[in-house]
Amino acid sequence: MKPSRRDFITTTAAAVAAMGISPKLFAASKEELTALYDRALVIDTLAFARKWDEEEYKAVEQSGYTGIITSLNRSSLKVALDELLEWHRRVDEEPERFLLALKADDFLAAKQSGRMAVMLNFQNSSMLEGDVDNIDVLYEMGMRCFQLTYNSRNLVGDGSTERTNAGLSDFGLAVVERMNGLGIIVDVSHSGKQTTLDAIHFSKKPIAFTHTMCESLRPGHPRAKEDAALKALADKGGVAGIAALGYFLGKKPGVETTIETYADHIDHAVKVMGIDHVGLATDFPVRGIASWATRENWYEPRLKSFKPVYDVQWPSWIPELDSPDRFRNLLPILDQRGYSTGDMEKLLGQNWFRLFQEIIG
After folding, report:
1. What distance in Å separates the CA atoms of residue 218 and residue 360, rounded to the nearest whole number?
2. In a 3-state reduction of DSSP, which class is residue 166?
3. Whether the Cβ atoms of residue 321 and residue 259 lie closer than 8 Å to each other
């Protein structure tokens, strides 16, 4: 069987390096990678703003993002509806900047018009308030994705930091069925192990881990997904987004844990799942964290809201990934590791676009 470009370059680069020659011999030019990025669909499947202001707008422009899945307040049904309404108002007021992503083709329209598509998402199902019919209401208001659980147990199932591992409830099964019927992405990024596997098994459509990482490289972290879950997701056609938050990826972000570590998680996910089932995500504002966060307003509150097993660290970011041009910074590394142009376009957004087509239409 003919080896892939990635396998060939990985093997050959190691041999060349052993001879004292830099493996950069195989790298594409900066201009080629810039052109690749500029033409690609670039989708970050968990991003938001500290505040949608001029600084964030500049960051969006610098990022080259085609679209994002964003996170809305889900503390109650009323709050959730208000959040959805606020996004409709924002798009009405800033039509040259934003486009609501109600269908997959909205990402293509955003790319063609120089706007950013925004898919509206809740990182929990608490806003349903125990009533499956509320999914229909939220769908009509523009929601196209939500997580079954956050870290703790809810009426749908157990979260990733819950002591137990009970999986989906009967209500949870009804929620997944309704989501499938309407065309809403089932997301289990923060769900417990059995809840994750149940969702993959019982969903009639592929599902997503919008922002996660590989447990094999971050052992014991509750937000990481084990190889068995990654493979099960891929076998059903789903996609996993590798989150760029520093302490999700490893210890001492920016020191021991670098952008190369991020690429390691991508490599591992691709090895387990295949190139068609891996994407990119951040889990922080488009502008990044370092420009505004302090120990007092970012780190210390998280020590109170997350269990110790979350291993929250300060600083929390990887410098090359904290900048809005984070995924541009990633491409030379992927190129050095042997990813083809097509591979990189899939990781940047094509895999997500395919999933959106299949689920939301």
Report:
1. 32
2. coil
3. yes
